[in-house]
Amino acid sequence: MSMAVAERENDAGDDTGELTDGFHLVIDALRLNGINTIYGVPGIPVTDLGRLAQARGMRVISFRHEQHAGYAASIAGYLTQTPGVCLTVSAPGFLNGLTALANATTNCFPMILISGSSEREIVDLQKGDYEEMDQLAIAKPLCKAAYRILHAEDIGLGVARAIRAAVTGRPGGVYLDLPASLLGQVMDAVKGEQSLIKVVDPAPAHLPSEAALNRALDTLKAAKKPLIILGKGAAYAQADDTIREFVEKSGIPYLPMSMAKGLLPDDHPQSAGAARSLALKEADTVMLIGARLNWLLSHGKGKAWGTAPKRFVQIDIDAREMDSNVPIDAPLVGDIASTVAALNARMSGDWEKAPSDWMDQIAAKRDANVAKMAPKLMNNAVPMDFHGALGQVKRVIRENPDTIFVNEGANTLDFARAIVDMYKPRKRLDVGTWGVMGIGMGFSVAAAVETGHPVLAVVGDSAFGFSGMEVETACRYNLPVCIVVFNNNGIYRGTDVNPTGGPDVAPTVFVKDSRYDQMMTAFGGVGVHATSTDELYRAMSEAIASRKPTLINAAIDEAAGTESGRIGNLNPQSVVGKKK
Ligand code: ADP
Ligand code: MG
User: Fold this and answer.
1) Ligand 1: which residue has its CA nearest to atom 19?
2) N or C, where is the chain less crowded by C-beta within 10 Å?
3) Alpha-carbon distance 467 to 433, whole Å?
4) Which of 261, 237, 289 is nearest to 81 (CA)?
């Protein structure tokens, strides 16, 4: 609808004469649905959208690059079950946000990417507009749903559809395309308000059938060596007490996937975390709760899973997840909160716990592994190695269990995941299903904004490089974010050399002994150069207590890492022509 039409309609109506426009309607539609924060980067045509949103009382967090605003929105969605919103400009800004949108979809995080776009009349005839691009078509294969709104009176509908699509069933990313001319469209304010939709019950409860519940309980009952695997879907569900009740009632040992760590505390007596290999190999029945049998679980078969035949029980909101890698004997298609509650209700007081010799076997292995690791974590070597440095991180998280721990890198990620215990749900945020680098600063900013808790981001020097400029964002909003860069002078290690003797360094090597801490002081934050475990511990503790944006450059032995961390097997290596 053109402005002229809007004015004519307005003249004809029996209204108050007050007008609204596309900008205000988008903002009001979001607010009506409890979305009060926008992550984004301003620019044409959405600059005023950000300004007006702030004027209306929304929190508008501007980043330096859309990818990080997108990651921030996606993790806000994970933490709150309400879609996080990322706002970008057209073509290049939109493309920068797409990585995060695709990553959100892959990880089942609810998010909405809202991008301004240029005019349909010009784009569709490819006349060459400013930042011309058919954004809707490009977004479609990378998200759960994609919509474009052309008329101001459809904004309420478009936003409602986007919200429902993001959170219902398996959560994921949604794209919402807003052509520049839509934002300026004017309509009667009363009619505009009436056109908005407050989404009722956006993620409805979903219960499996009686037969499915009984089948699952019978399968568990028959098991001699059952194992529960908790995934980030279980953490997302915010059914923490219900899940704990189920685990404890059943007496079944459990393994947390990376982001499910802390859903039950890692020092829980039924935790099999430190006996992972044994638990996977020997279990005869495996119950997956919000975890997929993808590459992170070796697709449910092969060496990691041992030779003992296994039966599988799986709770997932998405029916198509069943049998994706191995046959699922007892599928429970439903939302985790309702489904686990229904199981609990059917496990009467005399429910027989899992055989105790199995739990004892796991506990013995776990305790032995923990004891073996302990001295390594207490080493004070200078330069620090991964174990010495992470021993201090482990201590700081134990002393500050409400801290949100963000983690990315190769060795920095793999070692930290195994070493740093978590004590509370949804406190560990990391590279997720894709193992993507670059989530660090976006996740850190959003975690601080959404929860108010301090954030400790432990990141490899390479991983940090993907989002490092966002330290300015953390300083600008004065967020309680402490970044620890594990600086080993390069990717995997800093010791590679150029075999030709030429002037270029090896492709995996960075400037030696860089001072990342000075990037933080450039923007008024606290920078610390830590060369010993003692300095590292003190700096992290101070940062968490002071809540000041801090960057600690932790100097790690450049020879300490291994190629590709723990997934070197996925990195093909040439055997031809390599010198021994
Ligand atoms: P992890 O990487 O921790 O193993 P995944 O991301 O692979 O976790 O799996 C999460 C699973 O949880 C997905 O299959 C998703 O469909 C499912 N899921 C997400 N939210 C819910 C929910 N509320 N109820 C049931 N299943 C859910
Ligand atoms: Mg490194």
Assistant:
1) 233
2) C
3) 19
4) 237
Residue minimizing CA distance to atom 11 of ligand 1: 290
Joined together, the tokens standing for residue 252 give 């079944």
- What is the domain partition of the chain in residue ranges? 6-195, 210-364, 378-570
- Between the CA of 334 and the centroid of ligand 1 the distance, in Å, is 11
End-to-end CA distance of the chain: 71
User: Which segments in the chain show pLDDT lower than 50?
Assistant: 1-13, 580
**How far is it, in rounded angstroms, from Cα 20 to Cα 22?**
7
Residue carrying the six token digits 């991008």:
115
Contact 293, 326 (CB under 8 A): yes
Residues with CB under 6 A from ligand 1: 107-108, 170-171, 231-233, 236-237, 257, 259-260, 290-292, 294, 296, 316-318, 321, 335-336, 433
Gap from CA of 561 to ligand 2 centroid (Å):
7
210-364 carries CATH number 3.40.50.1220: yes
**CATH code linked to domain 6-195:** 3.40.50.970
Query: Each residue of 205-253: pLDDT tens digit?
Result: 999 999 999 999 999 999 999 999 999 999 999 999 999 999 999 999 9
**Alpha-carbon torsion, ordered 446, 452, 453, 456, to 10 deg:** 40
The values of phi and psi at residue 390, to 5°, are -75, -25
- Do domains 210-364 and 378-570 share one topology? The answer is yes
* pLDDT tens-digit series, residues 114-139: 999 999 999 999 999 999 999 999 99
Residue to probe by mutation, ligand 1, list 81, 236, 312, 407, most atoms within 8 Å of CB: 236
Backbone φ and ψ for 406, nearest 5 degrees, come out as -105, 140
Class of domain 378-570: alpha beta
Tell me how far apart the alpha carbons of residues 321 and 293 are, in angstroms, rounded to a whole number: 9
β strands within 172-301, DSSP E: 173-179, 186-188, 226-230, 254-256, 285-289
Nearest to 440 by CA among 411, 462, 416: 462
Nearest bound ligand to the CA of residue 320: 1
Encode 522-544 in three state secondary structure.
CCCCEEEEECCHHHHHHHHHHHH
- Note the maximum CA span of the chain: 86
- DSSP secondary structure string for all residues of 26-51: HHHHHHHTT--EEEE---TTTHHHHH
CA nearest ligand 1 atom 5, residue: 291
Looking at the DSSP bridge assignments, the partners of residue 315 are 289, 332
Q: Which two tokens stand for residue 329?
A: 């004997």
pTM score of the predicted model = 0.96
The predicted structure's pLDDT at residue 568: 83
